Amino acid sequence: MFESKLIKTLRKLNSTELKQLDLFLRSPYFFDGKPPPAAVIQLFEYLRPLHPGFDAALLDKERLQRSVFANEKLIKGKLEKTMSALQKVIEQFIVQQHPARNQDSEQLKVLLQFYREKHMMGAFQKTLKKFQRQQSKATQKGSDFYWDDFQLELEASHAAALHNISKSDLN
To answer: At what angle do helices 61-68 and 78-97 cross, to 10 degrees?
Structure first.
């Protein structure tokens, strides 16, 4: 337990991130409008005060099971399943907290795809032009730039094929 992926991940979070994780964990938004599973909350509540050291003696499997599942019959694998569920929530939290390096590009890509799929060609073309302007202003042209450029051309090609538009009409 002491060297589990869950504990290793929790060790890397600072105290501010841990507080934000607590709020994230309790939000029904990330659990399809339902409260998170009680065992996941209980496991987090047990582990949180142990941060950042996570004393190995306090991470004994039997002690954890008694703390998280106090009044329940012990079922083999239940603790591991709960740990896995908490790890998944933490990974969702990390993704939410660390957006892509170029958030504007990511948002524009999502908008382009949405407008194309919903056949909103006016909005698609405006967003495409905005993305093209952003790309033309780029000062560093590393792999992210070329990947964005490729995705931009791909979206334009999809839209042209879907709506029988010549490429020059999109530029």
So the answer is: 80
